[in-house]
Amino acid sequence: MAIITLTTDFGTKDHFVSAIKGAIHSELDNPIIVDISHEISPFNIQECAYVLKNAYNHFPKGSVHIVGVDGEKTPETPHIVVYVDGHYFISANTGVVHLICTSIKPDKVVNIQLPQSKETAFPTLDVFVKVACHIVRGGTLDVIGKPFSDLKELIDFKPKIDADEKSIRGSVIYIDNYGNVVTNISQQLFQEHQKGRSFKIRARHASITKIHDRYSDIIRFDLEKKNGKEMENYWRFSIKLATLKLLYTKVTFKQVVAPPVF
What confidence tens digit (pLDDT) does each residue in 45-66 have? Predict the structure, then answer.
């Protein structure tokens, strides 16, 4: 049986998540349900896309992903199912699926049109669950909707590259549980426009000229070890510097004076 995943901004205090799971169990025998996250910031499409993008490809092909963030149906955001990269995504047409699979062309997109379906304030339960269970039972997308070609793309969320290609401007899209800051400037984009040049990354008052692969790379293990409070403060400072490796807010490129270090 295919896995059904849940990504929502419902939190865990209220009844919403348990109602969704109960409805799935009522439709299917012994369903496999996985919670990706229910702690997405309310209506935050970028955050939802980041979390789901980094999780979905670890699931087997054929998995069904319910996206319960800003899911209400409107004339501008119809309910859709997108089959892309071997996975099914059920959501409103908010642009979240495009952010998840930016460089992958969808195999099929349908506008959900369930018979005798009523529009409610809880579409994740009343619409998305029914569609997910239909897919898990082996149902086709043609039964639940019509082909759809107007998949929303959120252009404003893309990083800005200056005309002379000397700088990239990005924005913070997520801060994880450890305080690591993630921006919309990907490593691939950075390397494509670096072109062998040295660089400087600016994030508020921080300025970075070297990127590390691991947090511990920032620590000088060759220095004499310190004791007590002094050592504790040293480690805290090192951890803060390590965290800054993800702060791609503005990147400025210059002519090479020395080989860049990654």
Answer: 999 999 999 999 999 999 999 9
Coil/strand/helix, residue 164: coil
Going by the DSSP 8-state scheme, the letter that residue 163 receives in this structure is: T
Residue 8: left (phi > 0), alpha (psi -120 to 50), or beta? beta
Is 101:85 a contact under the CB 8 Å cutoff?
yes
Cα gap 124→5, rounded to integer Å? 12
Q: Which of 145, 43, 37, 58 is nearest to 95 (CA)?
A: 43
**Strand (E) or helix (H) holding 21:** helix 16-27
What count of other Cβ atoms lies within 10 Å of the Cβ of residue 158? 15
Please, what is the average pLDDT of the chain?
A: 86
pTM of the model: 0.82
State the Cα angle at 245 between 198 and 172, rounded to 5°.
105
For the chain, the farthest-separated pair of C-alpha atoms sits apart, in whole angstroms, at: 73
Nearest by Cα to 4 from 169, 129, 157? 129
Question: Which residues on adjacent β-strands are paired with residue 198?
Answer: 254
Domains and their CATH numbers in the chain: 3-155 (3.40.50.10790), 158-254 (no CATH)
